Amino acid sequence: MMKTLIKGGWVVDPSQNINEPLDVLMHNGKIEKIERNIPEESHKVIYVCGKYVVPGLIDMHVHFREPGFEKKETIETGSLAAVAGGFTSVVCMPNTNPVIDCVDVVDFIKDKANMAACNIYMMGSITKNLDGIEMSSYKNLMEAGIVGITDDGKTVMDTSIMYEAFKEAKKLNLLVSTHCEDINLVYDRSINKGEISKQLNLQGIPKVAEESIILRDIFLAEKTGARIHIQHISTKRGIELIREAKKKGIKVSCEATPHHFTLTDKAILKQGSNAKMSPPLRSDEDVEAIFKGLLDGTIDVIATDHAPHTEEDKNKNLVESANGIIGLETALGLALTELVHKGNMTLEDIIRKFSCNPAKLLNIKKGTLKIGSDADITIIDLEKEWIVDKNKFYSKAKNTPFDGYKLKGKAIMTIVDGEFRYVAV
C-alpha cells in the first residue's frame, strides 16, 4: 500500500512538546515517521504549506441520537459533521432509546460505527434507563467497550446510588462523567435566573442548581477515590469548586463548551430557543470565569455537547422547546476565533484541550502523533475566514445560535486511520 506524506506543514503536538515545521509519513493507518524534509520518493504527497498539522480532535460529549431518535441525527450524519469540524473521534452519550445500559445496545452502536466517518466511542448509563434508581452493570458495559459512565441530560439525585456508582467506578478505573443540575431547581424552568429571565417574566434556573451537585459529586469522588469529570461547566462558583478540589488532589476534571465561553443569556433575546440549552447560558461574570478556567488549566477539555433537534422540537416557546444546540461544525472555529486570534491562548493550548486531554481522561490511544500511533490527524488553516451557514452543515440538524457568524480558523482536512475523511472544497 502506498505511503502518504503530509509535507510542508507546521506540526503542533502537545503530547510530545512538538511545535515546529515537520513532515508526517503515514502507512497502513499509522504514523510511520515525523521529521523534517522527509524525501518524497514514491509516496503520495499532500502539500500543506502554511497549515497546521495536529493530533485528531476528540469530542468527549456528543449526542448522535441513534438508536431511537434518528429524525434528529444518526451515527452516519453525526460522524460526517464531526470530520467536517476536524474531529476524528467522538464519545456518544447514553440517552438514546433504548438507553446504553446493556451490552446489546453497545454492540448495536459498535456495528453502526463500522460505517462511520470518525471513531465512535460511547459512555454507558450510570443507572438503568436513566431512571436514577438502579445501577447499570458497569463491568459488563466496560468489557463491551464503553469508556465511561454518565446519566447526561439528567442528574442522579439519589446520593446513595451515586455513592455506590463511584465506588464501583473506582474498582474499574472508569471515568464518572456527571451532569450537575439539581432537578428540583431546574424543573419547568428554561433559562438562567437573572436580568433576562426577569425581563421575559420567566422563572429562571439558579446557579446553585449546578453548584450544589458539583459540590456533592466532588465530595463523593474524594471519599471513594474515583475519577470524576464535570460536564459543561457554566458557573463561576462551579469552576472555583473544581479549582479548589484539584488543589486538594481530588481526581476531578471538567469541560466547557464553546457556547458557554462565547455567549451569555443575552443571546436568548435574539436567538430564542436556539440559545436554550442545559445548563443554560449564564452571565458575563460566568463567561469571564470560564475564560479564566481555560487559561489556568482548571478546565481540562473543550467539548461540544452536540445536541441535534428537529425544527419542530426547537420552534416552540422557551419553556416547551428542547434543550441543546449542535456544535461539531463550529466548535474549532469558535475556539480559534475567540481564544487564539484574540491572544488569550496558543494553538498548542487549544489542541491540548481538544485532543490530548480527552484522550488521557478516556484512556484511549489517541491524541498524539507519536510514531506507531493511529494516523488520526487534523489539518488546520488558522487564517481561513468563513461564515457559518447552517444550511451547509453535514448534521441533520440546524439548531445553532451561530448561523451567520464570521469566524477565523478552520479544519481543512480530517484524516482517520490514515484515510482522508474530510477535505474542504
Automatic annotation (TrEMBL):
<feature type="binding site">
    <location>
        <position position="305"/>
    </location>
    <ligand>
        <name>Zn(2+) 1</name>
    </ligand>
</feature>
<keyword id="KW-0862">Zinc</keyword>
<feature type="binding site">
    <location>
        <position position="61"/>
    </location>
    <ligand>
        <name>Zn(2+) 1</name>
    </ligand>
</feature>
<dbReference type="GO" id="GO:0004151">
    <property type="term" value="F:dihydroorotase activity"/>
</dbReference>
<feature type="active site">
    <location>
        <position position="305"/>
    </location>
</feature>
<feature type="binding site">
    <location>
        <position position="63"/>
    </location>
    <ligand>
        <name>Zn(2+) 1</name>
    </ligand>
</feature>
<comment type="similarity">
    <text>Belongs to the metallo-dependent hydrolases superfamily. DHOase family. Class I DHOase subfamily.</text>
</comment>
<feature type="binding site">
    <location>
        <begin position="63"/>
        <end position="65"/>
    </location>
    <ligand>
        <name>substrate</name>
    </ligand>
</feature>
<comment type="function">
    <text>Catalyzes the reversible cyclization of carbamoyl aspartate to dihydroorotate.</text>
</comment>
<dbReference type="InterPro" id="IPR006680">
    <property type="entry name" value="Amidohydro-rel"/>
</dbReference>
<feature type="binding site">
    <location>
        <position position="95"/>
    </location>
    <ligand>
        <name>substrate</name>
    </ligand>
</feature>
<dbReference type="Pfam" id="PF01979">
    <property type="entry name" value="Amidohydro_1"/>
</dbReference>
<dbReference type="InterPro" id="IPR002195">
    <property type="entry name" value="Dihydroorotase_CS"/>
</dbReference>
<comment type="pathway">
    <text>Pyrimidine metabolism; UMP biosynthesis via de novo pathway; (S)-dihydroorotate from bicarbonate: step 3/3.</text>
</comment>
<dbReference type="InterPro" id="IPR004722">
    <property type="entry name" value="DHOase"/>
</dbReference>
<dbReference type="InterPro" id="IPR032466">
    <property type="entry name" value="Metal_Hydrolase"/>
</dbReference>
<dbReference type="GO" id="GO:0005737">
    <property type="term" value="C:cytoplasm"/>
</dbReference>
<dbReference type="GO" id="GO:0008270">
    <property type="term" value="F:zinc ion binding"/>
</dbReference>
<dbReference type="InterPro" id="IPR050138">
    <property type="entry name" value="DHOase/Allantoinase_Hydrolase"/>
</dbReference>
<feature type="binding site">
    <location>
        <position position="152"/>
    </location>
    <ligand>
        <name>Zn(2+) 2</name>
    </ligand>
</feature>
<feature type="binding site">
    <location>
        <position position="152"/>
    </location>
    <ligand>
        <name>Zn(2+) 1</name>
    </ligand>
</feature>
<dbReference type="GO" id="GO:0006145">
    <property type="term" value="P:purine nucleobase catabolic process"/>
</dbReference>
<keyword id="KW-0378">Hydrolase</keyword>
<dbReference type="GO" id="GO:0004038">
    <property type="term" value="F:allantoinase activity"/>
</dbReference>
<feature type="domain" description="Amidohydrolase-related">
    <location>
        <begin position="52"/>
        <end position="419"/>
    </location>
</feature>
<dbReference type="GO" id="GO:0044205">
    <property type="term" value="P:'de novo' UMP biosynthetic process"/>
</dbReference>
<feature type="binding site">
    <location>
        <position position="232"/>
    </location>
    <ligand>
        <name>Zn(2+) 2</name>
    </ligand>
</feature>
<feature type="binding site">
    <location>
        <position position="179"/>
    </location>
    <ligand>
        <name>Zn(2+) 2</name>
    </ligand>
</feature>
<dbReference type="InterPro" id="IPR011059">
    <property type="entry name" value="Metal-dep_hydrolase_composite"/>
</dbReference>
<keyword id="KW-0479">Metal-binding</keyword>
<feature type="binding site">
    <location>
        <position position="309"/>
    </location>
    <ligand>
        <name>substrate</name>
    </ligand>
</feature>
<protein>
    <recommendedName>
        <fullName>Dihydroorotase</fullName>
        <ecNumber>3.5.2.3</ecNumber>
    </recommendedName>
</protein>
<keyword id="KW-0665">Pyrimidine biosynthesis</keyword>
